[in-house]
Design a protein that fits this description.
single chain; mainly alpha; DNA polymerase, domain 1; 2 domains; DNA-binding; DNA recombination; DNA_brk_join_enz
């Protein structure tokens, strides 16, 4: 058995976060876990018959009644999506505590949670905006101190034509690109530890080859070893989160389309554009689910497996792929 000190909520929150860190979540995700856990634990302390500050709350204090009261106070000023996220975090936390033998059971089924609203897509606005963006970035900008259009175009192509998330782009290695001519693919370390393979068309492949060639010229052959990060900054160092966000915002400014980027979307607007155009051009829900790496499209939907051929056909139908091929002088 654990002593009273070991049963403090704060101590077990940190133990839980350490355990989750082995799954390699983003720092943003870990911080969201910590914030939800600490906030509600503090509210639980206030809901006790004899209120306690957060640092004095023990795991044993977290009865179903106390957790219901804490979540009721948490939910009052917040959106349903925030409450749903916090509920899921606490459900996972209690599952961890049960596995560790700290508590006999999980009280969260006794705590109500709102249905999570489906997120609304935030694609780039304007029918031809993606094509304008690609064309502007493909041109070497004279005002840039150290222009690298090949690298910038590679980033946009992977987001617009493969639908990759920011974290997925940063995790790519040179070896993530594979497959023979005509069947090229990118292996993605997806969200929640779900790997996936996304087909890439010839135009995207040519963009990536051009980028890697330009990187060899800049930094030498050793810079493109298979285990090297695929995306690097102008010094040859791995791109980081802030650097990638700045790069994409810079591309928007150079293309003059900042007013067509949904607020708060930034790079994610490119992924949403990919998904939206797939749907508009006839891809099925199953194909979109598979290509974007979602566990499901809605809570009631089961995961639907589709064949590699169907996935490739869906990507090939994407107008952005055809536009990129035309930009490079290939068959549109």
């Amino acid at each position: 058995m654990h002593d009273k000190k070991d049963e403090s909520v704060q101590r077990w929150i940190e133990e839980f976060l350490t355990a989750r860190a082995t799954r390699k979540p983003s720092p943003h995700t870990l911080e969201a876990y910590r914030r939800d856990l600490r906030t509600i634990a503090g509210l639980a302390g206030e809901a006790l018959t004899s209120p306690l500050p957060l640092d004095a709350v023990a795991v044993a204090d977290l009865s179903p009644q106390v957790m219901r009261a804490a979540f009721a106070r948490f939910a009052a000023p917040r959106a349903a999506a925030s409450v749903h996220r916090a509920w899921s975090t606490w459900n996972t936390f209690f599952t961890f505590l049960v596995a560790e033998g700290v508590v006999p059971g999980n009280p969260m089924p006794a705590v109500g949670r709102p249905r999570a609203p489906l997120p609304q897509p935030k694609p780039l606005r304007g029918e031809d905006t993606p094509e304008e963006l690609l064309a502007a970035v493909a041109r070497e900008a004279g005002r840039q101190r150290d222009p690298w259009p090949e690298r910038d175009l590679a980033v946009l192509a992977l987001a617009l034509c493969a639908g990759l998330r920011l974290s997925e782009l940063l995790a790519l290695r040179v070896a993530s690109l594979g497959g023979r001519a005509g069947e090229r693919r990118v292996d993605v370390a997806g969200k929640g530890g779900r790997p996936r393979t996304v087909p890439i068309e010839d135009a995207v492949d040519r963009v990536l080859v051009s980028y890697l060639d330009s990187r060899r010229r800049r930094f030498g052959a050793r810079s493109v070893r298979p285990d090297s990060p695929l995306l690097v900054d102008r010094r040859g160092e791995p791109l980081r989160r802030g650097g990638l966000q700045y790069l994409v915002e810079s591309c928007y400014r150079r293309a003059g389309i900042t007013d067509r980027v949904p607020r708060g979307a930034r790079l994610h607007a490119l992924r949403h554009t990919f998904a939206t155009r797939l749907a508009e051009d006839g891809a099925s829900a199953a194909e979109i689910m598979r290509l974007l790496g979602h566990a499901s499209l809605a809570a009631s939907q089961t995961y639907i497996e589709v064949t590699a051929g169907q996935q490739r056909a869906a990507v090939r139908s994407n107008r952005t792929n055809r536009a990129l091929a035309g930009l490079l002088g290939g068959e549109p």
